[in-house]
Amino acid sequence: MRLFGRGPRRDPRDTPRDAAFPFFSVDEAAYFRAQVREAFAEHGLEVTLFESAVVDDAGRQFGLGNLAAVCHNDDRGQRAWGELARRHAAMVLRTVDGPSALDTLAPAQIRAQLYPRVINGEGLDPENFGYARSVAPGLYELLALDLPESVMMLTDEALGRLGETEQLRRRALDNLRELPVEGRETVEDDQGMRFEVVVGDSFYTASRVLALETLIRQTTGQRLTEDGALVALPFRHQLAFHVIRDATVIPSLTGMAMFAASGYEETPGAISPYVYWWRGGTITQLSERDEDGGGLRVVVGEDFQELLERLVAKGPSES
Predict the structure, then answer these.
(1) Residue 93 burial (CB count, 10 A)
(2) Which among 91, 57, 71 is positioned nearest to 29, based on CA atoms?
(3) Between the CA of residue 25 and those of 16, 30, 32, 151, what are the distances in Å?
(4) Of 145, 177, 209, which residue is a domain's last?
(5) Rounded mean pLDDT of the chain?
């Protein structure tokens, strides 16, 4: 899994781009949508194509954002898009046409497969996910049922059938803490920048920010101090962190800002292009887009500024 790299580009960036998926050129997007239509037709379902979704005759809508990003990032290029589209269509139709897992799984099994998931708040439907908990500006925590081929995001109605929300959330967090660490890499340079990146195929890798103290003990053997850590969760399969101990937090903050922005673009399951300060379970945003939208900048409040001044005055860490 790439850390900084992006998926293969085929048409030059100066060719006209698709309105819904700008990582595709207009021609690439047309080919992609043709593969999607053919994939659903092979499974006996005629669909109407829209920019970012398809709709069948029954009015069911299937979004294409994740599939488009998966195709864009596949190293094999366009020759793999048909296969990926067929696999996606088959999975989607098995999920929507089959019985609900809430009706077929025993309550104990449902609780064993329950996880919290951090998502970007864009498009979050408050009517169906009124229980969503704000994690940081623009980020929310939902509960999800992990299934063999899909992840079921649980609505208010679904949770009402399962029990009390806070009890379910506690169980989901326990399940999250027990997940194995699939992979970890260190990013560093000779200017003092250093941060750790946890990667994995799990859809809950980035969501482990909700159990950060446990994750850091698992991966580094360290414990967080009262100063906390920098964190970045560009997309669902990556979580970066830097345990704050000394002035290396400054170059690490800059490096993580670049890392988060790069990882967020054009990826399936994108969450956030920003860096955050985790302290005592509270997550504060430290980077934002420039006013002209052309880049990112670091913006810190009084508390974080005082932290930086204290660490600079303290000098190099002795640990």
Answers:
(1) 17
(2) 71
(3) 6, 9, 10, 30
(4) 177
(5) 90
Q: Cβ(287)–Cβ(297) under 8 Å?
A: yes
**Same domain membership, residue 200 and residue 306:** yes
**The token pair that represents 175 in the structure block:** 């399940």
Contacts of 145 (CB under 8 A, 6+ apart): 101, 102, 110, 113, 114, 151, 152, 154
User: 294 and 236, same structural domain?
Assistant: yes
On whether residue 256 sits in a domain, the answer given is yes
Are 192 and 291 in the same domain? yes
Q: What is the pLDDT of residue 218?
A: 94
List the domain range (segments joined by +) for residue 277: 183-314
In a domain, 3, yes or no: no
pLDDT tens figures, 57-116: 889 899 998 899 889 888 899 999 999 999 999 998 888 887 888 888 999 999 999 999
- Side-chain-side CA neighbours of 107 within 13 Å: the count stands at 6
Threshold 0.85, pTM exceeds: no
Is 281 in the same domain as 200?
A: yes
Please give the average per-residue pLDDT across 143-161, as a whole number.
91
CA-to-CA separations, 33 to 8, 26, 51, 74, 238, in angstroms, rounded: 18, 11, 9, 16, 28
User: Is 195:255 a contact under the CB 8 Å cutoff?
Assistant: yes
| 8 in any annotated domain | no
Nearest alpha carbon to residue 89 among 139, 53, 39? 39
- End-of-domain residue from the set 139, 157, 177: 177
Whether 11 and 205 have beta carbons less than 8 Å apart is answered as: no
Q: How far apart are CA 192 and CA 254, in angstroms?
A: 11
Alpha carbon 133 to its chain centroid, in Å, reads 16
Residue 198 shares a structural domain with residue 303: yes
* 262 in Cβ contact with 240 (< 8 Å): no
For residue 162, which amino acid is it? L
Residue 111 resides in a domain: yes
